[in-house]
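Notes to self after the call with IL:
- keep both proteins in one doc
- input above output, always
- annotate only the second one for now

Protein 1:
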Amino acid sequence: MKQKLLTLAVFALAAAAAAFLCLRRTSGAFPPKGEALRLATYNVGVFHKSGADMVGEIAAMMRELDADVLSLNELDSCNARHHSFQLAEFCSQMGEWRYHFSKAIDYQGGAYGIGVAFRPIPDSLTTLTLALPQGDGAERRSASLVVFPSFVFISTHLDHTSAEARKLQIESISAFVSEHFADSGLPVFLCGDFNARPDSGEILGMMEDWTLLSPPMSGAGTYPADAPDRIIDYIFAYRNGASYSVTGGGICTRFDSADVTLASDHLPVYVDVVL
């Protein structure tokens, strides 16, 4: 049965690759999203991978993308490396966006973690930080969760050294989502840097509970940004029967507002969904 599930998962990845092949952006403006909600995930590398402060450039790129909700990985908060609260600074440049920061570890007198950023809305929202099991991984990891009126959005950044740790972290997120949202009727979207390729055991093992929405395309990659040769950044949806449709998406390979190969060592990924 396990082998059958893995085989089905491989076929699902291949079908998704074909569906998204024409959606990858290569040049020009991003396609209009219409009535869709544009979700994106981006490991921003503490806005400093090029050696310069890239908060302004990355904010300009995300405005150009016209995203509605962002999963952001690798954020500093008031530590010795970066004295600012980076997520708040970024959201201010986005036009007073709202945000939820989730600490993963204490770092140099402050914090280091991940977050969710989103357009200002008047609704009262529920936000949560899930501490994920470290296992034999390099450091503690977390998941940042925001419950919107019509959907749930989760950002995470999994361990970069251990497949077993990543598996445990995925299982922890899945168990929480199953307990709290399996019968909610709300679509649940999980985004982030998973530090695992599409054919890895961790990603294939997710396919029983999650549907991959972002493109696992042959020849495409999200890392490293200047010569991408692997996909490790994804957007998934939980299989709870909630209604939504995917109308577009892709890996962001070029922007008019800034050089995406210098902004971070990852490329952004986006998906358009209609709820």
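Protein 2 (the one to annotate):
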Amino acid sequence: MITEGLKETVKHNIAHNTIRITSMIRLILIAVVLGLILGVLGTGFYYSVTFASTLRTENTWLIGFLPLGGIMIVFLYRTCGYPRDKGTNLVLNAISEGKRIPLRMTPLIFISTVITQLFGGSAGREGAALQMGGSIANFVGRLLRLDEKETKLVIMCGMSACFSALFGTPLAAAIFSIEVVSVGIMHYVALLPCAISSLIANSVAKSLGVKYVSLTLIGPDSFTVSMAVRVSVLAILCALISMLFCIALHYTALIFRKYMENPYLRVFAGGTIIVLLTSLLGTYDYNGLGTDVIRRSYSGEIDLLAFLWKIIFTCVSLAAGFKGGEIIPTFFIGATFGSVVGNLLGIPCDLAASVGMASVFCGVTNSPIASLLICFEMFGYDHMPFFLLAIGFSFMNSGYFGIYNAQKIVYSKYRNTYIDKKTI
């Protein structure tokens, strides 16, 4: 009896392990394919956005056509039968609730983001990358007839791959997609395939000549209690700024939809507001990505209200219907705010700008581990204690706000309590 029972147990374990190994190999192969495909697609998107941004910078009169560019975007989405675009929120819902992501999201977000950058809308590109990666991955999952659970893992792989190809932080990209969906829970089962797709996509992008933002951080020579306290204060203030950005982003969208139900009117009005603000301020710092301003923040050459103007420009652009992402604007807001406030607190400008970027990013995405990895990949490990403190304080003081409405806070930030609520 014991021998027969033992044999059955061994057979069961062998069968189970065979299925598990087969599933793992299949996921790894899919991750490799997605890494290659999205590495190429991400590279094409990078060059397209770069070309559009450069063309606009050299021909500033193009900004005057932003309202017409917005009408083109709305027309594209409505013509393709996708009038109510939920953006990155749809990708997060696909992972948490099994929602389907239409393949047409990829060309739509690709073209519309390029249009937004060409005419000076204030938006990023990494949010668009998450949407393209999720859309392609979801299509691959359906093509291979994967079940719902495997499809969710594949979508995470797609997000990691495209994010890594565009932003150049493969470690953070691999973690971000498994951390951002549900705060308090990490989808560790997706770690290996996400890591593979992220690393491959990043390698493909680099081999095709993609150049990533390079920031040199000198900072203080050593870790001191005095500097640690100042950095912690800055991080808490950045957490408040992240809350402000989230509130402004959501309420601006509500106001636009309430008073301008027609999407054509809404995007035209939003584009006109951006054109007028640009004219009144006499600068193009707040149009497009704003990476040049991020670099300037490292030397302290920043307007005191630069972070506030970027919040306004980005909220109006995205709420009106222009396309792109929120991550680069988040870095802009964090870097400029950190540089200004850090100067008042006696923190070196480069360290303050870096802390600001990481803290605001953590505050709006509720992704502390990915935020820390971004710091390591962008700024190195020399100032790790400062970043660790900053991200910890930002995460704890940013409340339950977030730029993604579909993101769920599964466990409380303040106590070991299950709450399962969506971000505000």
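Annotation: Strands lie at 182-183, 408-411, 418-422. The CA atoms of residues 66 and 119 lie 5 Å apart.
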